[in-house]
Amino acid sequence: MSEAETEAPDLVADVLDGDHRALARTISKIEDRAPGYRDIVSALHAHTGDAEVIGVTGSPGAGKSTLVDKLAKTYRDRGLTVGVIAVDPSSPYTGGAVLGDRIRMASNVGDMDVFFRSMSARGQLGGLSTATADAIKALDAFGKDRIVVETVGAGQNEVDVVRTADTVVVLVQPGSGDDVQMLKAGILEIGDVFVVNKADMDGASTTVSDLQEMLHMREGATAAGAGHHGAGAAVESDANADDKSTDEWDPQIVETVATEGEGVRDLIGALDAHYDHLRSTGELDRRARTRTAEEIRQLLRADAADLLEGEIDRRGGMATLVDEVRARETDPYTVADRILTPLADCVRERRERDDPVE
Hints:
Layout lengths: L2 H14 L3 H13 L4 H9 L6 E7 L5 H14 L4 E7 L25 E7 L9 H13 L3 E5 L16 E6 L5 H8 L7 E4 L7 H20 L28 E4 L8 H18 L1 H32 L3 H9 L5 H23 L4
Helix pairs in contact: 1-2, 1-3, 2-5, 4-8
Keywords: Chaperone, GTP-binding, Hydrolase, Nucleotide-binding
Pfam family, one: MeaB
Protein name: Methylmalonyl Co-A mutase-associated GTPase MeaB
C-alpha cells in the first residue's frame, strides 16, 4: 500500500473532526492532483450536502474581493462558519494562483471560522476547475455553513460558476458599461442576484434602471428554458418531469458600498430568499442533479483523454501521426479509428463478459 493510500483515511478523519490544518492539506492535495486525492474526495463525498454555496462573479475592479470579505464578516456575526475559495488567474510558469498572496480578507484576519483559500483556475480563465469543485466538497464535509466562490471575472467562461453554486451573484459597478458587456458575454443569464457595488458613485441609479430593463427582457428567454434557470433540463431523466415547478425566481438587484459594509445585510437577505425559493420549488435538487451529471461527464472526458494520450504516445506521439497525415500516408479519421479501436474493443469485451447474451 502506498504512502498516499495509508495517509488518506487519517486525513479524512481529521477533516471531519474539524482540523483546519488537515483541511488545508486536503485542498493542497486536491489542487495539485496529488496521489490519493481521489480517494480523499470520494471518502468526503458522503459527508457533503449541507453547505450553501454562493458564487460571486463580475468584471475585474467591480469590488468582488471587498464584498466577499464583508459578506464573510456578516455571516460570522450571525454565528455561521464560512469557507471562501478565490479562483485567480493561473501563472503561466507555475500554474499557481497569481494573486494568491494578496491580503483579501482583512475583516476576518485571525478568525479560524473563516477559511480562505486562493486557487488557480488552471488555464480556465473565469472558470472553475474540477479542483475547485472538489475543494468545495472538502469545505462542505468540514462543516462550513456558507461557501463563497469568487471567480476571476473574465467574460464568457464565467458561466462555469453555475456548475458549483446554488446562488450566483453578479457584481456591476456604475458608469463602467459593465451591464452592457455582461449582456453581450452571456453573464446576464446566470445571475440570481445582481449587486450594483460602489452605489455611492455617480450613475448608480442609471445602472440599476438599465439592469431592471435588461432583466425584464431576459424573462422571455428563461421561460423558454434558456440560461442558468433552465439548466435542469440538462439531466435527461428530469427533462420531462411532470411535477417541475413553473415558478420562476425574479432576480433581485441590491445596491452596496462594500468598502463601508453598506447593503451587505440586504444582500444576505436576497441570498436567503433565493435559497428558500430553491428549496420550496424543488429547484435546489434539480440544480444539484445537473451539477452531478456535468461533474460525471467532465471526469469521464478527462479520464478518457488521458487514456487516448497514452495510446497516442504508444504509437509514436502526435508529431509522428501528424507527419503521416501531412505526407498523405493516412488521414485524421483513420488515425482516430486506429487509436480508438483497441479502447472500444476493450469496452465491448468487458460488456459482453458482464452481460452475456442468453
